[in-house]
C-alpha cells in the first residue's frame, strides 16, 4: 500500500501543478493576442500538447491511484465524501481548461483572461480544500 500512496501523491502533485500552469498559459496567450508578448511555439499548439500529453495523463493516474487507495485501504468517513466532492471540482476545472483551450484555438478571446484567472483561483481553493480535508480528517 505505501507504493500506491507514493504514486497517488506524486501524480496528484503533478496534476495540481498542471491545473495552475494551464490557466497561466491561457492568460499569457490572451495577453499575447493584445500584442504584449509572443511565443516561439504557437500558444494553442503548446496548450493542447500540455493538456493532452501532460495534465490529462497525470489527472487520470491520480484519480485511478486514489480509487485504488480507497479500495485497498477501505477508507471511509465523512471527510472522504467532502474530499471526493473537491476532487470532482478539480476535474471540472480540468475540463474547463480544455474548453478554454478550444476557445483559444477558435480565436474567441472574449473573457479568456478573466476566465483563466477565475479558473486558477478556483483550482487553488479546491486543492487547498483537499489538503486540509486529508490532513485533518474531520468527521472521522
Provide a count of the helices.
4
Q: Order of helices and strands, N to C?
A: HHHH
Low-confidence stretches: none
Largest sheet: none
Give the rounded overall mean pLDDT. Answer: 89
Shape: elongated
The tally of domains stands at 1
Approximately how much helix is present in the residues? over 70%
Q: State the total count of DSSP E strands.
A: 0
Hey, roughly how much beta strand do the residues contain? under 5%
* Class inferred from helices and paired strands: mainly alpha
Rounded to the nearest angstrom, the radius of gyration is 17 Å
Distance between the termini: 21 Å
Structure notes:
There is one protein chain. The model has no long low-confidence stretch (mean pLDDT 89). The protein starts with a helix and ends with a helix. It has one domain (2-136). The chain is mostly helical and 140 residues long. 82% of the residues lie in helices and 0% in strands.
Supply database-style keywords.
single chain, 140 residues, mainly alpha
Structural topology:
Layout: H1 2-32, H2 43-73, H3 78-105, H4 112-136
Protein name: Protoporphyrinogen IX oxidase
InterPro entries: HemJ-like (IPR005265)
Catalytic activity: protoporphyrinogen IX + 3 A = protoporphyrin IX + 3 AH2
Amino acid at each position: 500500500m505505501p507504493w500506491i500512496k507514493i504514486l497517488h501523491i506524486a501524480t496528484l502533485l503533478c496534476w495540481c501543478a498542471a491545473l495552475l500552469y494551464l490557466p497561466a498559459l491561457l492568460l499569457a496567450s490572451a495577453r499575447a493576442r493584445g500584442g504584449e508578448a509572443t511565443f516561439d511555439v504557437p500558444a494553442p499548439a503548446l496548450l493542447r500538447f500540455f493538456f493532452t500529453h501532460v495534465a490529462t495523463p497525470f489527472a487520470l493516474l491520480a484519480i485511478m491511484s486514489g480509487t485504488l487507495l480507497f479500495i485497498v485501504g477501505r477508507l471511509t468517513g465523512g471527510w472522504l465524501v467532502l474530499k471526493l466532492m473537491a476532487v470532482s471540482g478539480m476535474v471540472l476545472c480540468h475540463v474547463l481548461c480544455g474548453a478554454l483551450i478550444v476557445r483559444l484555438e477558435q480565436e474567441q478571446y472574449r473573457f479568456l483572461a478573466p476566465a483563466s484567472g477565475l479558473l486558477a483561483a478556483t483550482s487553488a481553493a479546491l486543492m487547498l480544500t483537499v489538503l486540509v480535508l486529508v490532513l485533518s480528517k474531520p468527521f472521522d
